[in-house]
Amino acid sequence: MAERIYLDWNATAPLRPQARAAAAEALGVCGNPSSVHAEGRAVRRGIEAARESVAALVGAEPRNVVFTSGGTEANMMALSPFVGTGPDPEPRDCLLISAIEHPSVLAGGRFPRNAVEPVPVTADGRLDLAALERALAALARNGRRRPLVSVMLANNETGVVQPVSQVAALAQAAGALLHVDAVQGAGRIPFNINELGADLLTISGHKIGGPKGAGALVKRQQALHFTDPLIKGGGQERGARAGTENVACIVGFGAAAAEARLALAAESARMAALRDRLEAGLEARMPAAIVFGAQAQRLPNTTLFAVPGIKAETAVIALDLDGIAVSSGAACSSGKVQPSHVLAAMGVAPPLAQGAIRVSLGPTTTESEIDRFLDAWIRLSKALLKGAHGIAA
Ligand code: PLP
């Protein structure tokens, strides 16, 4: 039987061998990192080395990296009114987010629901900068001069890279702080927290080949702090996040970050070439396929496409039975398949959005896997289209 093909790297990446080895070794070391004895200090060294690697991946200072349980917690921690510089900063008075954020940002963190405002995107899936400028001006007119803005670096469904540096300029001019969810961009495109102009940045270990269960919120300046931490208790993570650290996952995250940084240029060029091969094959063999966000700058590893008349939920199952793991752009909650909020924000009609299939590649994806996917897709989609027409007739 042919080996399975994993093309769902935006959901989670397979463990990098370096991360697996580092995490396994850390599991074998006893000691609480907060203890002063030799065992504790040995574990502490592992965490601090990981902090350096994670900081280097995003161009930050190690002391500004706060480890969390993942991207979701880091987003929740970031989206707080109780963030600022100085001993007693005034709370932030509203939260502006793009309409295509991950659910962990859409939920609004610790802002009251009526203090959260979505900003639209254009048809190609990029944040509408003019709309953001208008929203910031309207807030200022209403006396709300302390906003927090949260915009992702790249969208998890379309892969569209967001105009973060321009967002940062607008945010700074309006006195806003900027949080960037860089979970999907990390390890796939080069960036640096200072050049982006982000005040806070989220990354997640398992998207870059680390273990699931570790992530980080990274600050640009040390002075930025949370006056009411999300998780209160002991003084771990310099008081920003209480609780004994998830040492093995953090150490594995560090090893994955180090490897992702070293390999970034080669891996992203390789993934882009494979993604182009996939899209060229789709275009040649199934011209009806529509690739979402194709006109915008995208991550090198992500293709979201649909073929009119094919439902993603059926196609994903058919591909799975054929040995191929991809994902649909639609979210399934309470047993009901909801069309993607990202495609809805881009103005894609619901019937087409319900056909969206996300194929996301990684550093170990091969040409022959792409070719096998294309063959399978052409065969299955033709059968599905025939079935759909058969039922309709
Ligand atoms: N942000 C984005 C853009 C994501 O794609 C994800 C996960 O899919 C998250 C945040 C959440 O990260 P985690 O799975 O580490 O909680």
Structure description:
This protein has helices spanning 17-27, 38-58, 71-78, 103-106, 129-141, 164-173, 193-196, 247-285, 312-321, 341-345, 350-353, 367-392; strands at residues 5-6, 65-68, 83-84, 94-98, 116-119, 147-150, 177-181, 200-204, 215-219, 225-226, 290-291, 302-306, 324-325, 327-328, 331-333, 336-338, 357-360. It has 393 residues and is an alpha/beta fold. It folds into 2 domains: 5-13 and 264-392, Aspartate Aminotransferase, domain 1; 17-258, 3-Layer(aba) Sandwich (Aspartate Aminotransferase, domain 2). The strands form 5 sheets. It has a 7-stranded mixed sheet with strand order 2-9-8-7-6-4-5, with helices on both faces. A 4-stranded antiparallel sheet has the order 11-12-17-14, with helices on one face. The mean pLDDT is 95. The protein binds pyridoxal-5'-phosphate. Pyridoxal-5'-phosphate (PLP) binds at residues 70-72, 75, 102, 104, 152, 156, 181, 183-184, 204, 206, 215.
Can you lay out the helices and strands and say which pair or pack?
Layout: E1 5-6, H1 17-27, H2 38-58, E2 65-68, H3 71-78, E3 83-84, E4 94-98, H4 103-106, E5 116-119, H5 129-141, E6 147-150, H6 164-173, E7 177-181, H7 193-196, E8 200-204, E9 215-219, E10 225-226, H8 247-285, E11 290-291, E12 302-306, H9 312-321, E13 324-325, E14 327-328, E15 331-333, E16 336-338, H10 341-345, H11 350-353, E17 357-360, H12 367-392
The protein binds pyridoxal-5'-phosphate (PLP).
